[in-house]
# Entry
Amino acid sequence: MMPTSGPYGTAKPGRSEFLSPARALLQFFSPGGRRGHLSILIYHRVLAQADPLFPEGGDMESFDQQMGLLTDCFRVIPLADAVRGLRSGSLPARAACVTFDDGYADNAEIALPILQKHGIPATFFVSSGVLDGGRMWNDTVIELVRRAPGNTLDLRGLNLGSFPIGTIAQRRHAIDNLISGLKHMPPESRQFRIEQICSAIPVNLPDNLMMTSEQVRLLHGAGMEIGGHTVLHPILASTEKSAARAEIANGKEMLEGIIRAPVRFFAYPNGKPERDYLPEHVAMTRELGFEAAVSTAYGAARPGDDLYQLPRFTPWDRGGQARFVFRMIQNMLRNTEVALH
Ligand SMILES: [Zn+2]
# Structure
């Protein structure tokens, strides 16, 4: 189990006995300098309470505990410092960064105060086109299925099949099915499909899931980094080349207009090399003036690695503090060679 309730600093007995060998072990595997490893953690949402449809996702309490453990075990630094450290071979020992993708309102409402409490500088990769009342397409599917009345979701008229939704597990199964079928479709056809599903299930959908522009400014004003994540979150590998470039460039420009400061870093939507983005998109982010970019390939970055494909990983399981450290070390030892050269 994770250390039980209580804010950072009031750990259960045993915490300090654990921390000293844990730090020594992490120091051994991540000694800093030219032999350093940069662990970049990735988060999406931080909910006030766990969502019964996604019990594996993070809630506020476990996020708070994980941030406490992270600052106890790692040197959490801003992404800009980490990129500089990778470039010059001067990473601190046990270096880590915290990042968030997509731009959920809970990042500003729930995660920010927790990050501030722990003194953690984070980077928020925001899809600019869903701010101010927009919604990620996958959330549209999730919220539709969550609210759909009755025990059956009949989408046979759209050739999407029929799903039993009498139980939470069945609703989750329907969501996973629909999302995996839609994920890699070209954005326009996907949008068309989603609008069809919306008209087939007449329910009210929330329009406050994503941040407002004001909340993006709030994060930036609190010293957090705002990074690009395209406008509408297309899978770049299935998007026409000029449209992909426009998505990356316009997302950056829109965010710079909001925060009135440069947007220096980029996260590839979905982020798996070769499947979700290609070498041409890596070149685009460099040409468009980003200083570095992150993927969702597992592993930890080392000096000499491609700064435009930094891997990310988060152990979101609740296996306790020893398991967290073990998983972080295991991730450092992965072969971080991403497939693109
Ligand atoms: Zn994303």
